[in-house]
TrEMBL record:
It comes from Populus deltoides. This is Dynamin-related protein 1C. Signal peptide: none annotated. Residues 522-613 form the GED domain. Keywords: Cell cycle, Cell division, Cytoplasm, Cytoskeleton, GTP-binding, Hydrolase, Microtubule, Motor protein, Nucleotide-binding. One of its GO terms (cellular component) is microtubule. It holds the Pfam family Dynamin_M. PANTHER family: DYNAMIN (PTHR11566), PHRAGMOPLASTIN DRP1C (PTHR11566:SF80). Residues 498-517 are annotated as: Disordered. One of its GO terms (molecular function) is GTP binding. The keyword Translocase does not apply. It is found in: Cytoplasm, Cytoskeleton, Phragmoplast.
């Protein structure tokens, strides 16, 4: 089995590393909170600070009246082999304190940095580590003293604020409660015991400490409490005799105070039979031994938490991306893989795996037909305009049989109107594709860490879409021009035969050319052209979407980034590295996660190696 010193010392080191990395509190249970520590609880003037100083063997805590401890003090004791005592603060990591009067001043100054010179409190802890051959490995949390009334300069809520802060520490299942009560007050009124009873009704996490035994009224003693008759706990009560104010004024050192405390219990007629289980030295050893037992019991759950957190951190690193290699081959490979990831998302949008591609069909099914319906054929093929166009086409010689030139001009003029809807369809699909590029870049998780590459891909994709749009425009214009360049002759032959068949049934009626220049004649021309344009409209309604899909959508799926791939392949290492520039916040986040991951893996390995030796 591992020694008590090595196991608790390891926990201390892990807790300190957690604190340095900010892995302290927050949502869920952090590793810091999973590791047991001792929360020191007591009312104001209960002797709480003196107990801590006795355990440490150093005079280092601020003193005064009222609320002196206004921020939690996380105190980690580290046993070292020989050498002089020294202290370090987390907020001043490069400074080693060997003068403990300076430690006291730094605690007061650091408290004022957050709370000001007022009597306000703050839940932001101060982290202090003390290294000494005269301590046991232990983590203690000194909390503000519980109070019943607010004094001048304090808000009315101070009583509740302090209790809530203290409660937030002692209600955690891994917290060992050191409940300090003065012996010269009724134990039934002890603030510390009252709170401990609420959060730990079974008493399995609570150690009772009775201070100021030497200040009790003559003829009275605290044996009923110390022997568990007044208030029983699962752990034994420990009596403490603090330094007197005269000793403090005379700067009596803690080592001498400990010796004086031992003599008091050994020579006391009331407490002599308990002397081996009284005093600050015994309390420190008792807490350390219990802490080691609790740690050993908690090892399976601590390891489970560590493994769970390691999995979560690895998943987070996978999500935001692992560090990029520095050689150009690896960088080029990474860029191409990221481009392919974007391309997959983009194709999923088009093929229906993700929303957005359906908007292209909406252009063909709604926008194009609606635009075709709005074309001004009624005006263009009105009788008046037909007469005007036909007459202009005839010139000085009116047509003899059918006004072919007039027909052609009317048809050409009508077909030219189709260019507007055709180009609008191209532009509408182009807008949808650009929007899908933007969406796909935003939804490609692997790209989120590389804003420069995102911009490069967006620029390359949009440039390609512009080329596809230009080709699509030329193609749909050709489709329209094709309809003008060669008319469907059979359509007009059928029209010519129908009136002849109808008009020849009555030999007394004039021939089909008799109404050549009246209104019916021009109305019939307009109707014939309108029917032909209707046929052309049906043809283009089907062929324009095919051309747009072939020139734009198909090409976007097939070769959206082909030019970009060729350009990237020719770039030098420096330019490749610039493309993989990351968001500084993301880089900082990855570094933090990597450090936490290293901490948790190291903690798991060290706990495994130490705990089961």
């Amino acid at each position: 089995m591992a020694t008590m010193e090595s196991l608790i010392g390891l926990v201390n080191r892990i807790q300190r590393a957690c604190t340095v990395l900010g892995d302290y509190g927050g949502e869920g249970m952090s590793l810091w909170e999973a590791l047991p520590s001792v929360a020191v609880v007591g009312g104001q003037s209960s002797g709480k600070s003196s107990v801590l100083e006795s355990v440490v063997g150093r005079d280092f805590l601020p003193r005064g009246s009222g609320i002196v401890t206004r921020r939690p003090l996380v105190l980690q004791l580290h046993k070292i082999d020989g050498g002089s005592d020294y202290a370090e603060f987390l907020h001043a990591p490069r400074k080693k304190f060997t003068d403990f009067a300076s430690v006291r001043k730094e605690i007061a100054d650091e408290t004022d940095r957050i709370t000001g010179k007022s009597k306000q409190i703050s839940n932001v802890p101060i982290h202090l580590s003390i290294y000494s051959p005269n301590v046991v490995n232990l983590t203690l949390i000194d909390l503000p003293g519980l109070t019943k009334v607010a004094v001048e300069g304090q808000p009315e809520s101070i009583v509740e604020d302090i209790e809530n802060m203290v409660r937030s520490y002692v209600e955690k299942p891994n917290s060992i409660i050191l409940a300090i009560s003065p012996a010269n007050q009724d134990i039934a009124t002890s603030d510390a015991i009252k709170l401990a009873r609420e959060v730990d009704p079974s008493g399995e996490r609570t150690f009772g400490v009775l201070t100021k035994l030497d200040l009790m009224d003559k003829g009275t003693n605290a044996l009923d409490v110390l022997e568990g008759r007044s208030y029983r706990l699962q752990h034994p009560w420990v009596g403490i005799v603090n330094r007197s104010q005269a000793d403090i004024n005379k700067n009596v050192d803690m080592i001498a105070a400990r010796r004086k405390e031992r003599e008091y219990f050994e020579t006391s007629p009331e407490y002599g039979h308990l002397s081996s289980k009284m005093g600050a030295e015994y309390l420190a050893k008792l807490l350390s031994k219990h802490l080691e037992t609790v740690i050993r019991q908690r090892i399976p759950s601590i390891i489970a938490l560590i493994n769970k957190t390691i999995d979560e951190l690895n998943a987070e690193l996978d999500r935001i991306g692992r560090p990029i290699a520095v050689d150009s081959g690896a960088q080029l490979y990474t860029i191409l893989e990221l481009c392919r990831a974007f391309d997959r998302v983009f194709k999923e949008h088009l093929d229906g795996g993700r929303p957005g591609g359906d908007r292209i069909y909406g252009v063909f099914d709604h926008q194009l037909p609606a635009a075709l319906k709005k074309l001004p054929f009624d005006r263009h093929l009105s009788m008046k305009n037909v007469q005007k166009v036909v007459s202009e086409a005839d010139g000085y010689q009116p047509h003899l049989i059918a006004p072919e030139q007039g027909y052609r001009r009317l048809i050409d003029g009508s077909i030219s109107y189709f260019k507007g809807p055709a180009e609008a369809t191209v532009d509408a699909v182009h807008f949808v594709l650009k929007e899908l590029v933007r969406k796909s870049i935003a939804l490609t998780e692997e790209l989120k860490r590389f804003p420069t590459l995102q911009s490069d891909i967006a620029a390359a994709a949009n440039e390609a879409l512009e080329r596809f749009r230009d080709e699509s425009r030329r193609t749909v214009q050709r489709l329209v021009d094709m309809e003008s360049s060669y008319l469907t002759v059979e359509f007009f032959r059928k029209l010519h035969l129908e009136p002849e068949k109808n008009t020849n049934t009555n030999p007394n009626q004039p021939g089909p050319n008799a109404d050549r220049y009246n209104d019916n004649h021009f109305r019939r021309i307009g109707s014939n052209v309108s029917a032909y344009i209707g046929m052309v409209c049906d043809t283009l309604r089907n062929s324009i979407p095919k051309a747009v899909v072939y020139c734009q959508v198909r090409e976007a799926k097939r070769c959206l980034l082909n030019n970009f791939y060729a350009q990237v392949g020719r770039r030098e290492k420096e330019r490749l590295g610039a493309m993989l520039d990351e968001d500084p916040q993301l880089m900082e986040r990855r570094t933090t996660i990597a450090k936490r991951l290293e901490l948790y893996k190291s903690a798991r390995d060290e706990i495994d190696s130490v705990a089961w030796k």
